[in-house]
């Protein structure tokens, strides 16, 4: 019997593939990152056993705890805002960290660059996180500064591989077509300024509620949590008091 999460993933892959084809690309042009935050490793393992390899987490400690429990060929993505003090422990504990989606300031880029170097790791792929829903904030750089930060990562961080841009949209993990359009505009500006071919550029946009629209608008990487794993269950804090 196919595990329910594996069936849900299969449906997501099919929907993402059809959306890619509607955008004039091959179904394989879009990567689905299975976002398992708050979910047990046993559920992630069911997807691994069904052949899936790409998983995302957005709490550093949770990723550090889960990574050793899945095989080494798992490709982990850290998604969202990363704190400077978590960089070194995260990179040390997760040798198969494949991408950090969420570099939103120069300081964090420099921390990552130094940590990769001092650990003697392979260069690490990173996406610059853009806040497409408002003014500059902690989570994502303002679109007007995306070229500046992309340039810093590409030219000033030799141990990082600048691979593209990522956006969350709104704080509640929803996005509008305007958010996606804003990210596409940033991509065009960055590609032009840094001489990067647009077809070699990643755009991480689209989550459970809106990934098909995001793919139609050019996303190469969708981050899907609840549509695969079901609603997130956060521990009730009161129980700890
Ligand atoms: C949790 C999370 C997701 C997944 O959200 P769903 O709406 O459950 O698919 C995507 N991106 C980031 C950065 C997240 O933290
Ligand atoms: C983007 O910035 C605005 C304004 O600071 C803020 O309200 C919003 O929550 C930010 N979006 C995200 C996803 O953090």
UniProtKB/TrEMBL annotation:
Co-factor requirement: pyridoxal 5'-phosphate
GO molecular function: pyridoxal phosphate binding
Heme listed as a keyword: no
Alanine racemase N-terminal domain ranges (all copies): 26-231
Pfam families, sorted: Ala_racemase_N
Residue positions, PTM N6-(pyridoxal phosphate)lysine: 37
Keywords (A to Z) from UniProt: Pyridoxal phosphate
Superkingdom assignment: Eukaryota
Family the entry assigns: Belongs to the pyridoxal phosphate-binding protein YggS/PROSC family.
Function: Pyridoxal 5'-phosphate (PLP)-binding protein, which may be involved in intracellular homeostatic regulation of pyridoxal 5'-phosphate (PLP), the active form of vitamin B6.
Family matches, as NCBIfam families: YggS family pyridoxal phosphate-dependent enzyme
Protein name: Pyridoxal phosphate homeostasis protein
Protein species of origin: Eragrostis curvula
Lineage: Eukaryota, Viridiplantae, Streptophyta, Embryophyta, Tracheophyta
């Amino acid at each position: 019997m196919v595990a329910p999460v594996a069936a849900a993933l299969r449906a997501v892959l099919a929907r993402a593939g059809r959306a890619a084809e509607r955008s004039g690309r091959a179904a394989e042009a879009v990567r689905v990152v299975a976002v398992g935050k708050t979910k047990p490793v046993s559920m992630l393992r069911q997807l691994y056993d069904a052949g899936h390899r790409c998983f995302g987490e957005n709490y550093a400690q949770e990723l550090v705890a889960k990574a050793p429990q899945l095989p080494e060929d798992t490709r982990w993505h850290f998604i969202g805002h990363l704190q400077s003090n978590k960089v070194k422990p995260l990179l040390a504990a997760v040798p198969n960290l494949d991408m950090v989606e969420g570099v939103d300031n120069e300081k964090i880029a420099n921390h990552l660059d130094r940590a990769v170097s001092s650990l003697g790791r392979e260069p690490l792929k990173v996406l610059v996180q853009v806040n497409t829903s408002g003014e500059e904030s902690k989570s994502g750089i303002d679109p007007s500064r995306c070229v500046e930060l992309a340039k810093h990562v590409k030219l000033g961080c030799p141990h990082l591989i600048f691979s593209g841009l990522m956006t969350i949209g709104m704080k509640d993990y929803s996005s509008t077509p305007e958010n996606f359009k804003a990210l596409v505009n940033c991509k065009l500006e960055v590609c032009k300024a840094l001489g990067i071919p647009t077809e070699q550029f990643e755009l991480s946009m689209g989550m459970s509620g809106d990934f098909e629209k995001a793919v139609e608008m050019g996303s190469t990487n969708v981050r899907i949590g609840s549509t695969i794993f079901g609603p997130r269950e956060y521990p009730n804090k009161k129980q700890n008091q």
